[in-house]
């Protein structure tokens, strides 16, 4: 068998994060004789409780709507696969890119962004709730598996990429920017900054940027796939979308009379391929122009080196513009999301009023910690629930639990 060009053993790019030069871990540990720091981080993430719970957390649909729609776990695996492909093409550290992809959704609540919005509303008097910051809280504090420390004790580069994979959170003076400009940094980020400077003002390394754009690619293609399979819209509705429509026409020309399910899969896989190829071409051009000689130079450029071209960015915007009203705001989805939000808010209120009903390890010392710390503890507990467990717990305490279907 001949090997495809570009997939042999390639030397590491000069701007790749170097595992042998990691800035280390908060709690010093002996170096592994068999794994790099980032391979070790990837393995710890995969073996974490939070990672296992992703199998029963919603991507868009709730668990009762069938087992062939995507969950947070299946989405995460798909993102990791794309991230490794991009990392290989750019000759950056595949293990770090994979670790970041595997960890990027650890902080999500039950019922997807619906649950996050509901919990954030409950937590606004206490510093708010943000799934990205919650991911950091999980890997630095909430996972309790090791004898010598809380959290997973991940390498600095993994924590940095996890927090900043979508870009800087502050300006150089430390003032929150972007989505945090109005509300300020989430409490979990503020709390952690006292332990390690994650350079919130800079872009992350190329590996984190690869993981972030992989998340966009997976969302676009696979939400389209799920929406079609749920009959929220039809293939004919996509004909005027840039790139999507022409790709669909090409499939029909080559395979006249192709059955609907095969056409959906063919469309999804071709879109993923086209988006990956676009990111590789655009990224190589940006990297050639910037010529960064190290990972720190990537961080200090003030702009991302890995992303969509302008043309593909327009496709991404058009696709999201289509999916928002047709899928995310579909009347049936909105109805279920409204009921799911009530489940989360009811549970939060219940545990705040009745903290003694929390599991023993969660309610210990609740009378001495004050309202704000109790609220954070309750948010941690509720956020960690799977969709199914949240519904079960709601039925345990309430008589009006929705069916969510």
Walk me through the structure.
This protein is mainly alpha-helical. The chain has 3 domains: 35-193, Hypothetical protein af1432, CATH 1.10.3210.10; 213-329, no CATH class; 332-397, no CATH class. The chain contains 17 helices and no strands. The protein has helices at residues 37-46, 49-53, 72-90, 94-103, 112-123, 131-142, 156-164, 187-193, 206-229, 244-254, 260-290, 295-299, 310-328, 331-353, 360-363, 370-383, 387-397. α3 crosses α9, α5 (112-123) packs antiparallel against α16 and α10 packs across α11 (260-290). The protein is globular, with a radius of gyration of 22 Å. The termini are far apart. Residues 1-8 have low confidence and may be disordered.
Brief sketch in words of this structure:
Residues 72-220 form the HD domain. The chain has 405 residues and is an all-alpha fold.
Tag the structure with descriptive keywords.
Hypothetical protein af1432; single chain; 3 domains; mainly alpha; disordered N terminus; HD_domain; 56% helix; globular; 405 residues
């Amino acid at each position: 068998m001949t090997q495809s060009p570009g997939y042999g053993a390639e030397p590491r790019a000069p701007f790749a994060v170097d595992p042998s030069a990691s800035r280390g871990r908060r709690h010093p540990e002996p170096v592994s004789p068999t794994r790099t720091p980032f391979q070790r981080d990837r393995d710890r993430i995969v073996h974490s409780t939070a990672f296992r719970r992703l199998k029963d957390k919603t991507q868009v649909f709730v668990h009762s709507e069938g087992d062939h729609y995507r969950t947070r776990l299946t989405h995460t695996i798909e993102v990791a696969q794309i991230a490794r492909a991009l990392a290989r093409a750019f000759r950056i550290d595949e293990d770090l890119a994979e670790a970041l992809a595997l960890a990027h959704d650890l902080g999500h609540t039950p019922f997807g962004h619906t649950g996050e919005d509901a919990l954030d509303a409950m937590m606004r008097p206490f510093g708010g709730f943000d799934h990205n910051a919650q991911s950091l809280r999980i890997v630095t504090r909430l996972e309790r598996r090791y004898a010598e420390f809380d959290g997973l004790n991940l390498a600095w580069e993994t924590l940095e990429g996890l927090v900043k994979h979508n870009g800087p959170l502050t300006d150089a003076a430390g003032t929150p920017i972007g989505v945090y400009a109005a509300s300020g940094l989430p409490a979990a980020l503020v709390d952690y900054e006292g332990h390690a400077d994650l350079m919130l003002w800079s872009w992350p390394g190329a590996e984190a940027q690869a993981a972030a754009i992989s998340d966009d690619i997976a969302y676009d293609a696979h939400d389209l796939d799920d929406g079609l399979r749920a009959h929220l819209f039809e293939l004919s509705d996509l004909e005027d979308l840039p790139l999507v429509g022409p790709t669909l026409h090409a499939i029909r020309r080559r395979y006249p009379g192709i059955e609907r399910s095969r056409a959906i899969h063919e469309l999804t896989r071709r879109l993923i391929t086209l988006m990956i190829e676009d990111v590789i071409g655009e990224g190589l051009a940006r990297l050639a122009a910037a010529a960064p000689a190290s990972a720190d130079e990537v961080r200090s450029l003030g702009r991302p080196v890995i992303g969509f071209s302008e043309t593909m960015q327009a496709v991404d915007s058009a696709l999201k513009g289509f999916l928002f009203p047709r899928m995310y705001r579909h009347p049936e989805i909105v109805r279920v999301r409204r009921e799911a939000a009530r489940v989360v808010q009811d549970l939060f209120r219940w545990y705040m009023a009745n903290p003694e009903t929390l599991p023993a390890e969660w309610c210990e010392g609740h009378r001495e910690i004050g309202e704000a710390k109790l609220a954070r503890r309750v948010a941690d507990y509720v956020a960690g629930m799977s969709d199914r467990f949240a519904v079960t717990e709601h039925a345990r305490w309430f008589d009006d639990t929705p069916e969510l279907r």
